[in-house]
Design goal:
Alpha-Beta Plaits, eight-stranded mixed sheet, three-stranded antiparallel sheet, 12 helices
């Protein structure tokens, strides 16, 4: 017959220390043991058949009773908790559905190499950790905007969608989504601009894709066809350090968001997108986000941005001259910088010279073939062929 040794009780006269035993002899032996350890009031009883939390010991008489009322109430409470848990589970299940959302998938290029470096450089490790705080900031901003959505909508004539910006970040991957309206577009592009600029100043390029499609995105999970398509654009189509826009959205958003004065007069378009030779529109993040065409972007801001990364691009062109697939990304970015400098001749920064002839014969052959392919593709585009 099983027994339990009640070693000690707490201030509420409930068991605080006990020991289950298989026989009376084992129980007696355990009492002798704990008596030497300073528990002279220990006693044993037959196993009560209930959880010890419902056992009420009487040390004076060395007997026990069972708190049947407490057990009954606990059973009721547990049943209520189970019902509530099932209700929440059903509520969550019913909330799982795809919504039309603007979706951006971003990849922070060079992050894996940076992680390897951080293993032997504690200060660099700290720099990486601090750089990720931007996602906390963007999350806080999204929460604030959601709380003040009605106020913002009335003052800025935004759509009053109940949805808001959502951000999921893991390692070098970032997923952003927002409601498919003018507020959602503005919010998404502001976040993309912030992330691109933030990591660019820290020596990281960003590549990505933006689409409109079906997505499920909450605080803990994100999945759906739109995410797969945004990832496909990033991994297969973007190729260079740019964030490209799906063709359908490129047609819908045109040159960029229209900008009007307080009197309603059309002032221009926000310089959001730039067209590549291969036909893709990409986010023009070397410009100031609120730069307007035909009005110039703040020159000092552009000069500071380009000045900070120009030497990095030049050094990496030399560093990766033996790896054409990597070198081509920096070549593309160098050409992007040169295009911006052509638009702003008043900026006193020299254009980046791409001296490919200094490299190996094999590299020159690859470069020549690629250039021929790009020019042929441009000619076909002009002629109306894909």
């Amino acid at each position: 017959m099983p027994y339990i040794v009640i070693v000690a009780v707490d201030e509420n006269n409930r068991i605080s220390k006990y020991q289950p035993c298989k026989s009376e002899a084992e129980a007696q032996a355990h009492i002798a043991k704990v008596d030497k350890l300073g528990y002279p009031n220990a006693f044993y009883v037959e196993e009560p058949g209930v959880d010890v939390q419902w056992v009420i010991p009487d040390v004076a008489t060395k007997t026990i009773s069972v708190d049947k009322a407490g057990m009954a109430q606990d059973k009721i409470d547990r049943a209520a908790q189970q019902i509530e848990a099932e209700r929440k589970q059903e509520e969550f299940r019913n909330s799982i559905n795809y919504q039309q959302r603007y979706v951006a998938f971003l990849d922070i290029l060079g992050w894996s190499e940076a992680i390897e470096k951080s293993q032997n450089d504690p200060e660099f490790l700290k720099d990486l950790g601090v750089s990720l705080k931007i996602f906390d900031v963007l999350q806080s901003q999204a929460k604030w905007m959601q709380e003040h959505l009605q106020e913002l909508a009335s003052s800025q004539r935004w759509d009053t969608s109940p949805d808001h910006a959502r951000i999921t970040h893991f390692s070098d991957c970032v997923v952003l989504s927002d409601s498919p309206d003018s507020r959602g577009m503005h919010s998404l592009l502001m976040n993309v601009s912030s992330i691109c600029s933030h990591f660019l100043t820290r020596g990281f390029f960003v590549r990505g894709g933006i689409v409109l499609g079906e997505l499920f995105h909450n605080e803990n999970s994100v999945f759906g066809p739109a995410l797969i398509e945004a990832y496909r654009l990033e991994s297969q189509e973007a190729k260079y350090p740019r964030v490209i826009l799906e063709k359908r959205l490129a047609e819908a958003w045109g040159q960029g968001q229209e900008y009007h004065g307080q009197d309603g007069v059309h002032l221009g378009y926000v310089k959001t997108w730039r067209k590549s030779d291969d036909g893709w529109s990409f986010f023009d993040y070397l410009q100031s986000y609120n730069a307007l065409a035909p009005f110039p972007s703040p020159e000092n801001l552009i000069q500071k941005t380009i000045g900070n990364i120009r030497s990095m691009v030049i050094n990496d062109l030399k560093k990766y001259s033996g790896e054409p697939s990597i070198w081509s990304k920096y070549e593309w970015f160098a050409n992007y910088i040169n295009e911006i400098l052509d638009e702003y001749p008043q900026i006193k920064l020299p254009k980046i010279e791409i001296k490919f002839w200094q490299y190996s014969l094999g590299f020159n052959v690859w470069y020549a073939l690629r250039a021929l392919h790009r020019h042929w593709r441009k000619i076909m585009s002009v002629l109306g062929h894909k």
